[in-house]
Amino acid sequence: MSLAIVRDLRPELRLTTPEELAAFEQDLLSEFVLARASAGISDGTVAGDVGVIVEVRSWFTRPLWEMEPRDLDRFFGRHQQGMAHATKVHKAHSLSVYFEFLELRHKPAIHRATGYVVESPLDEINRPRGSTLSRLRIPPPLGEVDHLFSAWRDEVPQARKPLSIVRSYTAMRLASLIGPRVSELSLANVDDIHWELGQFGKILLRGKGRRGKKKERLVPLINGSRSLLEWWVDGPRWQYDDRVDEPEAPLFPSERRAADGSSLRVDTDTLRLHLKKMVAQHLPSQAGKLTPHTLRHFAASELYRQGMDVVAIQELLGHKWINTTMIYVHVNQTHVEDAWVRAGERGRARFGGAS
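Given the sequence above, the corresponding structure tokens read:
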């Protein structure tokens, strides 16, 4: 009995036109999404990975299987130079998973279709180091934060655009008092403040959840935040326009106007930029470190120091898991130091009479 010659019966898949390559890329990306979903990865994580892949593909302008390490050197070293380190680590992780998918499942097919042998451009030289988990951010002490906002407030009389200075001051000061996210500040409306609710009044904060759904929570106006917002809403806010009492009037408006003359809402980049500028001027030791998110950590740590329990802080910040909140307040936990002091006292009591 003779042996027959076995050959690959699949037709040769040699892609030549841009349309064929684009369709092939889209098929690969769709399969990647399906594979990650079948592994139980959350929709938010998968969407984040896809966003990174699309961003890098748009920057590279060619299929990603053509990338070499030096291409990724340019992406992280130049194009992403100003990005936070944690952001680079996250993007590197997303790319690593995608290239692992391409190599494990489609390396031969990509070679047949394009002539390229796919290999991950990430290596031990250019891979951003670090964890994709939350890093412990140590906020400045209370005295430094108070100094920053005091100096910021004093800038108003001589500022070229005093109204924008006051607006950003109020938003960031609120972040330091009750910890709203900068995106939540941008989305807040004047009628989201419910002065009559609870003992202090409450503000409705909304953010973007998974698949475009909005996440909302009511936050009490504690820690001086009510008096801050009363001052803002009754005074400087009216100088932007006279529509404060209209539905969905932005709590923190922009200098830009809509077609009807009303103020648009401030964007998050503007708030970040103003905070960065003020920190550089008045608290240079925190330049590059004190961000709106760090102020959120400061609010949690300060409230914990004042005696608020962790579960209440978790609800205030809108955290799903208490472990996340524990990272925020860990800086003020002193149980290790307290145990050390108690151990020293016991030691002195035990051996104090020994010669």
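The chain is about 55% helix and 5% strand. Try to locate this feature in the token string yourself.
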